[in-house]
Amino acid sequence: MVAADSVATSTDDTDAVRNYTVETFVAQFVRQHRPFKLVVREDFTSGRNKRATQTIFSAWAAADRALASYGYLAEDLKPALTPTTVKKLVTGNGKAEKTEVAEAVRKWLRLSPDYKFRVGYDDSDALAVCLAYLIRENLIDDIAEAVA
Q1: What does pTM read for this prediction?
Q2: Cα gap 117→103, rounded to integer Å
Q3: For the segment 89-100, what is each residue's pLDDT rounded down to a tens digit?
């Protein structure tokens, strides 16, 4: 792991401000940590309601603008990495809770058990997506070897 980070936006802000926050955060992160071979993200089809779905896709568009400014794009993975698939590959349980995902990510990356992820676990979720891709593509060992 080179870096893991996330940005939170406020529901008090307009969508424009929230999207700008995401875009500038991603641009700064890419600038600081490039080059990358691949950018992946978890599949997302719908949120708990129309507004949640709109918010996610707006954030994705903001991130895509930032990535494009540096010549990157988030890969359209086939098959897609669904939340259940990510959890299954990383923890062995497709219904794992965020704390279980974070614990498995610590083990996969050989981080200390007391390594703290941000509140909400967005950074550990992002790392889980990366790990799931690497596991699925047989680029790293299977879960039994990593978390044993």
Answers
A1: 0.84
A2: 10
A3: 999 999 999 999
